[in-house]
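Comment thread on ticket #2218

A.B. wrote:
> Attaching the input chain for the structure job we discussed in standup.
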Amino acid sequence: MALANPRAYLRSTFRALQHRNYRLYWTGQLISLVGTWMQSVAQGWLMHRLTSSPLMLGLLGFMQFLPVLLLSIWAGVIVDEADKRRLLLITQAAFLIQAVLLATAVSTGIVQPWMVLALAFVFGTINAVDLPARQSFVVELAGKEDLSNAIALNSAAFNTARIVGPAIAGILLATIGEAGCFWINAVSYVAVIVSIWRMDLPPKPHIPFVPRRAVETMLEGLRYVKSVPPLRNLLTLLGVTAGLGFQYMILLPVYARDILNGGAKGYGLLVSAFGLGSLASAVIMTRKLDRWALRRNLFFGLMTGAIGMGTFAWSHTIWLSLAMGFLAGFGLILYVATTNTLIQITTEDRYRGRVMGLYTLMFVGTAPIGALVAGTIAEHFGAPVATSTSALVLLGGAIWMVRRLRVLAAREAVTAPIPATPEKVG
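C.D. wrote:
> Ran it. Output below, let me know if you need it in another format.
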């Protein structure tokens, strides 16, 4: 199809960008995410330079993701009732201030490990609200008909930034230091603020926040997820695999500096390798896929991630590490993007904010526990053992998914022809 009619192929691949509001959002996010990845890489490098401790890297991840664990469910309630554009303008402005504070601390030479931890906690607090807001906002910008494509393009933007940002950060870390990365990130938030400001969206009526009503609204969302087995299964699997299986990022400074002797540039290359694999996976996800193809993606993603991460754990050669980083990144994003798509197409609109709050909890909010576990294992037994543990968790998820696919196939074979009711997934 691509060779026969490249224009039609490109129009199908990037169909969500035909919506002006989504196009503005996507462009602003791409610029801002480059800065965010630069800050993430520089922050880990800064902490390792100040402390030389894998456990402190684990604590850094714990502090950054702890607010998401504590607040994401409540954030989903706010998202369902708030004007999402206004909410995102507030969160992006708060991110800008956090980046300026971090950049100032490093530039003036007063930075201490506790400051990095405190500002990571601030970042996580903002992120707890920003993530479900952005996830829920996409359907308002691209419409349900292009929702899956918009999710895939979001992932493509995220992982393009994941390649470009660390590559730039690696160069800057080796030349002008961490402060330059933090200042560039602060400026990048201006792009997303401007893009959101320019959108043409009807204002949402203001709904006053009532604590008692908020509690009931939150519980209603939990009951909804519990009553829909596909959502319950997808979110539970995500919580286990993401919480314990996705913690390779916090240990990459150890691999780059102590195992592969690659320095700051090697660190940037490792992060970019994972990002390049993730980008390739996101591009594949822009295609239109039926539910069974999406279900199979869950298994293939987890299995590929396990193989790549397990091999990466014990590699002492930079090129093998880069290749396995690419493979692991490909598998992890194939799994995560597919999970996001299945959850979004299964969720009713009135529960979307709360469900995406739970998605954020399972995907990001479980990371504090995983980060501490990975950092502690690495401190006592070495980074390869910690990363291998993550690979085993992913392998366990893949095995569970195989059993689940067999159950679904048998169930659909018995009930064929399929009745005209919404098909359950997960």
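A.B. wrote:
> Thanks. Noting for the ticket: The mean pLDDT is 84.
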